[in-house]
Structures are given as structure tokens and as C-alpha cells.
Write a structure and sequence with these properties.
Elements: E1 5-8, E2 11-14, E3 24-27, H1 30-33, H2 39-48, E4 54-65, E5 72-79, E6 84-85, E7 97-106, H3 112-125, H4 135-140, H5 143-152, H6 154-159, H7 187-193, E8 206-215, H8 218-223, E9 230-237, H9 240-256, E10 271-272, H10 276-311, E11 319-325, E12 327-336, E13 339-348, E14 350-352, H11 363-368, E15 371-374, E16 382-387, E17 396-398, H12 407-413, H13 419-425, E18 429-432, H14 435-440, H15 449-458, E19 462-475
Parallel strand pairs: 3-4, 18-19
Antiparallel strand pairs: 1-2, 2-3, 4-5, 5-13, 6-10, 7-9, 7-11, 8-9, 8-19, 12-13, 14-17, 15-16, 16-19
Helix pairs in contact: 3-10, 5-10, 7-9, 9-10
């Protein structure tokens, strides 16, 4: 810790030493750096800095915690021609991400009876829990359809009636990574994902409904049609067993090919981007990303159905604000030492945060900056932010609150206690596949998201637009 040097507000440099090819860059407050669990993620920041072709810094966000190879909350950009791509820099849940939709209903107008009916309806429509999915999907999803959804991304689900064409412009990369190749995916991955479209899975994944509590930037909020008191929908999930298997397949192949040799941690195993192995992972990772876009699109469809059935609200009036990835590697062009350069930007537990003027954004967000969606925990809050396009972090920001303690510790701390009743005392109704999941995901298992987004704003990565307060939560 003593080696950290303050560079700018809430921004510290971890000096280059040993095998590090670049310095580390830590986005955090002084108080966060004193937390007892900082040692391991900072060690991982150093390890990532040793990867071939890394440019700028090995970066960690204020929600950082220990992960597989890379810290969760880690960002690293590699030279697209001479650098490497690392599955550990993306994560097992490829394109785990978040989407927020706005409902034309003041939350206070939603009476308690309808709130509970809505939560029960969501639980009926959306499978949750490890390995759970829609059995009918495995029977009706033909091999042709499977290939189409992988190659077309979320547009395929919309073609099937699960949403509206205008949803696509409100998704990162318009809901598709063009490099996806169905033939690069193993049969086992295809089998694992076949019945899982439209399901949230387990762990920290969820569907949440609540109230827009506070507006910080009225002009941007109004441009986004977000107002205090409105009802919001927050969906957090990824590519399920499909992406998990792709990650596992690739890690095995990379290690067997010797790509872990000489690395400080074999979990960092990475292949040259332009190698046959690197290209295969790139194409299969994109396939998993497109699976995840489809998955969140299906879930939003089911939530729209629930609001229509319980509240009589037209499906098309529930408007998607944005959908972002936070476990992904993408090719982007950034300014490096005065010249524009193509980079492979790994974001693992980190969110793209393009600023005003970014050409990839639709005109609305080109004016305001890209929406940055920051879920917290199910008892306190989540945040909407607007990206500022900070070049030092490759236009990246945090992805959530970040865990403060492990699932095992949280489970032990809440053992024998009434977790559902405890959440009701906080004004939050929760349904889940198991009591264990709720115990693992109690609010005190997470850092305070208000403090995390404050650091992100101080560092100039994104600015706070609105604070969201949860009320109805469906967990895996």
C-alpha cells in the first residue's frame, strides 16, 4: 500500500516493478485502500501488468475484489496486433451485464397487492437458480435458430416477437458482436445453453423493480425520460452455462498449448490475439456475448408481460433505457501517446463509459454521454450514471458495488436468521430459488454503492444522474 502514489483525485499509481510491463492504476478513495481485502486484488493488478502487449496501465475500479486471474473490477487494453487475449480478463460469465427499463408508472401508485402479484408473476415467468431454464426451449430451438441467435444477437429475439426494434439502439453495440462464429463453440456449450434463454441463473443475478429515488442531473435525466418517483426495472444476468463452458473450454486449450508458461499466475493464461487459438476464443466469446444479449432481451419481454398482465400497461410503453456489458473484451480505437491505436480492451467487472461526442453512441447519448448502469445490493440502492470518456481508463467505469465479504462468510453470518423477514423490514420483498442464495446476497455482503459511485465521479470517469431504490427483488 505504501507504494501507491496519488496521481489525481481518487486515482493512484502502482509503480512498475518486477515483471510488470506497465504501472497499475487504482481508482479508489484513501478509505477504500485501507480495507483489509485489498491485498489480493492489488497483487492481481500487478500480475495483469505482465501480460504481453498491455498498453497504458493495469487498472482496477473502486468495486475491485479478488477474481479468477484478473481482479473483478479490472480493465486492461492490449495492442490488437501484438498483444494477447485472456479469458480470465473477461470472466466465466461472458457478457454478464445489466439493463434498465423505465415504466410509465409512479411507484407509489403501485398498491401493495399488485406489487406482490407482480413479483409472483415474475417468478412464474422467469426461471431462476443454477442450471434452470425453459424446458420448451430445448425442444423448439432448432440448430438453425441457434446459429441465427448467435450470429444476429438480440435482433433475433426481436424478430421472434420478444421486444421491439427500437430496443436495439439502446444496447451496447446494438446487441450484437459481429465476430461471433457458431462453429467455434463446442457441442457441450451449445447443449448447456440450449434451454437457458430467458433465465437469470444463480448467484448475484436478479430482476429488480423499484423507484427512482433521487435525481442528481435533471437535464440528463429528462433527456433520458427518467423522473423522480418513476418505476424502474433492473435486470442483471449473462450468458449462463453457454458462456461458462466456452470459458472453461478455452482455459483448458490455452493451458495445454503452453500459453501459461512464464506467467506469475496460470489463471492469467492468454494467447496472442492473432493466433489461431486467440481467434477461436475471440469468435466463441462473441458468440457467448450474443447469447447474453438475447437472454436479457427475453427476460425484459417476460417482465413487460408481467406488467401488462398485472397492471394493464402496454408492453411497448416500457422503454429500455440501456443495456451494458461488464464482462467482455472488445476492439476499440483509443488515443495512445498522441496517435489513434486499435486496442483489445478487457473489462472484467467493469463497464464501458463512453463520453459525450462518442461516434459509436446514438445521437441522444452522444449529447449526454453513455448511460453507465451501476447495480448495488438488494437492500440499499443502484445508480444511473453518464459516462465521461476518461482516456486514462480507456473510457471505463465501475460495474457495481463489489463484494465486501465472500459468499461463505455471508452464509455463515446469516445462518439461522430470517433473511426474508429481515429484507421486509428494509421495505424489500424478495423471492429466490433458495434461502441460501438470499443469505449469500444480503446487503452487508456488498460495499456501499453510494461510496463507490462517489469515487467514480471524483475520478472523472462518470457522473451521477439518478439513485434507484429497490423494492421487489427476484434472485437466483
Amino acid at each position: 500500500m505504501s507504494k501507491l502514489e496519488l496521481l489525481a483525485p481518487a486515482t493512484y499509481v502502482l509503480p512498475q516493478e518486477g515483471q510488470m510491463l506497465v504501472p497499475g492504476l487504482i481508482i479508489a478513495s484513501a478509505a477504500q485502500l485501507q480495507e483489509e481485502d485489498m491485498t489480493e486484488p492489488l497483487k492481481q493488478v500487478r500480475n495483469v501488468a505482465s501480460l504481453l502487449g498491455i498498453v497504458g496501465y493495469s487498472i482496477a475500479m473502486p468495486d475491485m475484489h479478488w477474481g479468477y486471474g484478473f481482479p473483478i473490477g479490472g480493465v486492461a487494453a492490449m495492442d490488437a496486433e501484438h498483444g494477447v487475449i485472456s479469458p480470465g480478463g473477461v470472466g466465466y460469465d461472458i457478457n454478464c451485464g445489466v439493463r434498465v427499463a423505465i415504466v410509465p408508472l409512479m411507484y407509489r401508485e403501485l398498491k401493495e397487492e399488485k406489487r406482490q402479484a407482480l413479483l409472483k408473476k415474475l417468478f412464474q415467468l422467469i426461471p431462476s437458480g443454477a442450471g434452470q431454464g425453459h424446458q420448451e426451449s430445448s425442444q423448439t430451438l432448432t440448430n438453425f435458430d441457434y446459429r441465427q441467435l448467435i450470429e444476429k444477437g438480440a435482433a433475433w429475439s426481436i424478430e421472434q416477437g420478444y421486444g421491439f426494434s427500437q430496443d436495439l439502439e439502446r444496447m451496447e453495440s446494438h446487441g450484437v458482436l459481429e465476430e461471433a462464429d457458431f462453429s467455434a463453440v463446442s457441442e457441450e456449450a451449445k447443449l448447456r445453453g440450449k434451454n437457458q434463454l430467458g433465465s437469470i441463473g444463480s448467484g448475484n443475478h436478479f430482476v429488480e423493480i423499484g423507484e427512482v429515488e433521487t435525481i442528481f442531473l435533471p437535464d440528463i435525466a429528462e433527456a433520458w425520460n427518467v423522473y423522480a418517483g418513476q418505476t424502474y426495472i433492473l435486470i442483471h444476468t449473462g450468458s449462463r452455462g453457454f458462456g461458462h463452458q466456452i470459458c472453461q473450454d478455452t482455459l483448458t486449450e490455452f493451458i495445454q498449448a503452453g500459453f501459461a508458461n512464464g506467467l506469475p499466475d496460470k489463471q492469467l493464461v492468454a494467447a496472442p490475439i492473432q493466433s489461431p487459438e486467440g481467434q477461436k476464443y475471440w469468435k466463441s466469446m462473441a458468440a457467448a456475448a450474443n447469447f447474453a444479449f438475447n437472454n436479457r432481451q427475453r427476460i425484459l419481454h417476460h417482465v413487460r408481460e408481467a406488467f401488462h398482465d398485472i397492471c394493464g400497461i402496454s408492453r411497448e410503453k416500457i422503454v429500455l433505457l440501456y443495456d451494458v456489458c461488464h464482462n467482455i473484451a472488445k476492439m476499440e480505437t483509443h488515443l495512445v501517446e498522441g496517435k489513434f491505436k486499435k486496442l483489445c480492451v478487457h473489462r472484467k467487472g467493469a463497464t464501458r463509459a463512453f463520453g459525450p461526442g462518442s461516434e459509436e453512441l446514438i445521437p441522444l447519448f452522444r449529447k449526454t454521454g453513455q448511460p453507465v448502469l451501476v447495480p448495488g445490493d438488494m437492500g440499499r440502492a443502484s445508480h444511473l450514471m453518464a459516462g465521461l470518456g476518461h482516456i486514462r481508463t480507456w473510457c471505463s467505469a465501475c460495474h457495481g458495488a463489489g463484494r465486501a465479504k465472500s459468499r461463505v462468510k455471508s452464509l455463515n453470518d446469516w445462518k439461522g436468521k430470517h433473511v426474508i423477514e429481515s429484507m421486509k423490514e428494509r421495505g424489500v420483498s424478495v423471492m429466490a430459488d433458495s434461502q441460501r442464495t438470499i443469505a449469500e446476497e444480503m446487503p452487508d455482503a456488498y460495499k456501499n454503492v453510494d461510496e463507490v459511485v462517489e469515487v467514480v465521479e471524483q475520478a472523472g470517469l462518470a457522473k451521477k444522474v439518478a439513485r434507484l431504490r429497490p423494492s421487489l427483488v427476484m434472485k437466483g
